[in-house]
Amino acid sequence: MSVKPDSAKALISEDYLDFPSQRWYYLGFGALLQACKAVDVLSSFVSSDSRIYLCKKWLLFDTLYCIVLATLRIPRLNYSKAVVALQVISLWLFNGLIFGGIRVNVWGDGSGITTSIPSQHDIAHTPEASSLMDVLAPFTFGLFSSQVTRNDAHLLGQHTVRMSPISTAQLNPYGETFCLPSSGNAVLVPVLLNNTNPVALRFSVTPLGFNPGQPEMLDLSGKELRAIEQARIETLQLTRDASQDEMDEYDDDPTPKHSPSLQRTQELIHIRLPKPGVLRLERVLDSSSTEARLVIPSDVTIVPCPQAGFTPDKSAANNIRCSGQGNDVQLMMDINGVPPLSLRWSRSINGKREAFLVEGIEGGRHSESSPSSDHSPPMVITSTGPTRLTAAPEKLQVPFAISLDAPGNHVYALEEVMDAAGNTMLVGGNANDNLANHHAMRSFTVLRRPAISFKHCSPEHPVPLAIGSEAVLTVSTMDADNLDAPWDISIKYQPHPGNKRFKPWRKTLSTQGSRRDLTIGANAPGEYMITGVKGKWCAGDVLAPESCNVVEKPIPTAEIKWTKIHECSGDTGVSASLVLHGTPPFHVYYKMQKDFEPPREMSKIFTTSRGQFTLQPEHSGHYIFTFTKISDANYQRVEFDGPSIDQIIHPPASADFVGVPGGLGRKKALNSCEGKAIDVEVELRGSPPWSLELQLVGPKSSEILMFGDITSNRKKLQIPVPAAVDNEGGTFEIELISVEDKSKCKLPITVPGISVNVRRLKPTVKFYGADGKRQVTVLEQEQTGLPLRLTGESPWRIQYRRVGDDGISSSTLKTPNDFVYVSEKGLYEILEISDAQCPGLVIPDASHYRVDWIPRPTAKLSEHTPATYEPLNGSYILPPLCEGMDDHVDLDLTGRPPFQIMYNIAQGNEQGGTTLIGQPVFNSIQSRTRFQLHTSDPGRVYYEVKQIGDGAYPLEKHKNTPIPRYERLLFEQQVSLRPTARFKTRNRLSYCLYDIFTPLDKLSSDGLVVLEGSPPFQLDLSIKNLATSHVDMQTIEVHDHSWKISLQNYQFTSVGPHLIVIRSVADSSHCAHATLDPLGTSIWVDVAEAAAIVPIDRREDFCVGEAAQFQLEGTPPWSIGYRINGKTYTQEAKVSPFSLLQQQPGEFIVTSVAHQQKMCKASITDLRFSVRSLPSAQVGHGKRIYQDIHEGDQAEIVFTLIGEPPFTFTYQRSELASSRSKPGKILETHTVSRIYSNEYSIFSALEGTWTVTSISDRYCRYPPIQPELGKEKTRP
């Protein structure tokens, strides 16, 4: 749509209303109109009579909406005149479609007459009489229409007679109960009126009680009643707005408990009463000055609303009780209302709720004043009748005893109170209000008595107390409530007998906040006792252990004795003997100082009261040993003056081998592969210089070696290899005999010796091969072991490589005939070897081994196969052939038979790609095999050898190793389609005698030959005349894929059927044609003479809606020409007999008939008759008349008759319809005959709806009787 610029001035200035708001309001108004239209659309489906009216209405509304929008000139909604016109036309079209103003009639059969005769839908008919309105009606989309008028023009109108109902008034129609919540309020009592327009209302109010006195009469005018109703609606609206949030939160239903569903004749009014009493409806006066009938009962009782609550009590604030301390509580309740009353209350203990109901609550005054001999309600007789009496309300005070035994939360709530009038009131309003002093609720908290005792302390397990420190005693509170916190705990202290340092005392301590444990600092030994406990509300109990004994522990001490250790070299160390006093375990700390070095602190741990340890330093010097501190289980690092010892210590000389790995047993082991001597390292302790004595033990002799003047702690000694072992190899041992230091004290040595293994033969390695052949052939990527021959001592470690690779591999071998495992082909070379002791030699002549792979099988086209190689895609192009011909190629295979060949077969598709049609596998046992080609489907066929298996590489084990795509064998072939020909349809063709065999209808597909293949085509046809048995052969060349039979040189010379058969077809591929379908390659041609038409019924008069039947001669279809009132029409007929439904009065004349698709036409001059109009009948001159009468009156029903007298018509009376969609039940039906006038009247005092169901005049009847039509037959 094109939008005008904003320069156009709006009708409503932005000073009054801004443009966005104007757009919003007007578009919102349009959306409201469319919503109303949707409601009318739904209602039109229920009652179709109103569709035209609704269509006209919305055509007018939508047009006005668009015109007003254009007049307002609102920016961004201001359109050009052309766009506005387009909007109006679019809305008109839409309204016409949804309301039926526009009808999509595919078959052209939509007349009103035919719709009343279901069996005539398929009958041909004449056009209806038309006028200027009929021409303009389709273009108005339903605004003007004559169609519906004619559909209902024959039987119009109805006369409905209704009996006026009796006016009634019913007080309190829903049986509600009413009560006044307070003296300043009023109640609204409903009165249900039926067929009543009240102008005055009288009621009486009788006071409550059994001695009421005279009732008070009150009157309300119609104006007052309307004011009461208006005030009620406004109050209800304000109440709903104020409680909207609460309704959303709790999902309450704001609808009143008794939601009235009023009928059309009913009305609900209310009486406002501000005081209690018995209200009685005395009289209701209608606008017609008639009194409405009062429905019994006509009175209702209004009482003060019942109330209940706990009596206010000053002690109610104290709602905390202790368990087991006289927990019976007496509460008082104030209950107001009309006795006897019922009270519903609940009790909740620790969340477990129980509900109770108390009935029959009444005071003594009620029992004295009310009659006891009669159980029926008392009555008083007034001027208008008996009135029930109700007791006066009373104020009662009722005791309410409760028991508070179980600890926890106790909640007692008054929920509902009910009075004798049936009023039920919730007590306390909001059920979530849990205040203890609420008048409808009392809550109590019953606390448990606290219990207390010492924790982790008892007379049997006293708490130790170190001197000068403080012990922590814990008092634990059990079975107590946090609400009772803090707790006051009474503690008494009593020192041990004989201890004069401390005095007894008593204290009261409090816990911190809601903490249940109390810690007490005890700095004096003695007995601590709990004497009592009291919480904030409740006194408690003292549990065992109620006393705690605190014992003072002594400081640890020690008795120490030093002893010197003396040997030949002098003093070598000291030993200490200790007797310890205290609580084990003990830690004894001492200091050791050598010469002028800083002292070092050391410690020893003893788990018993006695201990001994030895100190022998490894180095000589002046040592001082001093004990400094002691610790036990109770005291840490207590200073004490322990004994000291001053000693010059010379450690004894000793020696040992170092840097030699361990061997079997306690001995150390060395290996020697070459050389006359070996090096060993010894470590010496003592005072240098040292002299060392060693012994060499050989297989047959031994030798003593002396090494002197050794000044360093570590010395590397060179030990000669014995001659016997050096020559042949073997084992000898080195033992340390003795050592002598500066003190000339020679000491023996008892350390493990060294076992030396001397080898003079080096290990070797070589590849093993039978007959000197070191080569193996295996499957591709298969792991294989290369055999080795090893000499030496296990384990061996070798290094090898594959010639040509930079990397070096290594392997550890354990047997002399082990293998090296490889998976790649190539030449492998051994580089180095070493065994468990010595490096070895690689034998040069046997250091290489070759690994080869068995070649995979291959396939290629045989050189005798005619194919052209295409280097662009690496494919072989095979010669083309025709569809279905047998063809093959020969493949040359290499490998180990048998072979399995997996290949892909694909075919080109219309999108330019290929579609995989199969992946078969075929087997061959020969190296040259024949490969069968796929020629059953035409198109480009592609073959790809995906994988080949043979005896070495079977497909089952090597499915995941296909041939790489660039190495696969590819070949392709063009399979040409065999030409075919068939008739597109097998419909019979019709020609007239002496016609040339050329197409009569170029747009029809009858006689069209469809060809498949490569043009041009050569088509052979045969034409057989069955009447003369003559066959004519025709050969035609076709340059397209379709050809419509056109034989200029062939003329039909005889009447009867002719058979056309396609004998053969050929195309440019020179392939033989495919098998031709006998049914699809032949059609029939019917050749006929001129057509004829004969009427079956020789009548001179027909009625509109009747069908005239004719017998047709010739070959279908026929074309019949006729004339009505001077206008010419044409009708098609496919079967004979042929029926034509008359829909237009006047003179009907048949002028011509033709067959063979409007060919072979014949003129008709003597076939004519008259068509008469249908009669019509109207009730109430065609209108809907509604007449209300009273009992004893009569209504006149007038019938108008249109047509040629005499008339006969049928009318019926039915019940009043309960809804528009469901008609009433038919009560009576009458038929009146021989009426020569055009108007007829009847009188009736009965209620119902009169309608005409049928009418007949001199010629016709409406609705017409369905004619007996002949069944149509189809010619073979």
UniProtKB/TrEMBL annotation:
Biased composition (Low complexity): 369-378
GO MF, one example: structural constituent of nuclear pore
Domain Nucleoporin POM152 ninth Ig-like: from-to ranges: 1092-1163
Gene Ontology biological process terms from the UniProt entry: nuclear pore organization; protein import into nucleus
Recorded coiled-coil stretches: none
Domain Nucleoporin POM152 N-terminal transmembrane: 18-102
GO cellular component: nuclear pore transmembrane ring
Biased composition (Acidic residues): 244-253
Record-annotated Nucleoporin POM152 immunoglobulin-like domain positions: 553-654, 888-959
InterPro entries hit by this protein: Ig-like_POM152, Ig-like_POM152_1st, Ig-like_POM152_9th, Ig_POM152, Pom152, TMD_POM152
One Pfam family hit: Ig-like_POM152
Region (Disordered): 239-261, 363-386
Domain Nucleoporin POM152 first Ig-like intervals: 168-301
Domain Nucleoporin POM152 Ig-like: 449-548, 762-847
Domain of life where this protein originates: Eukaryota
Protein name (database record): Nucleoporin Pom152
Organism: Lentinula aciculospora
Lineage of the species this protein comes from: Eukaryota, Fungi, Dikarya, Basidiomycota, Agaricomycotina
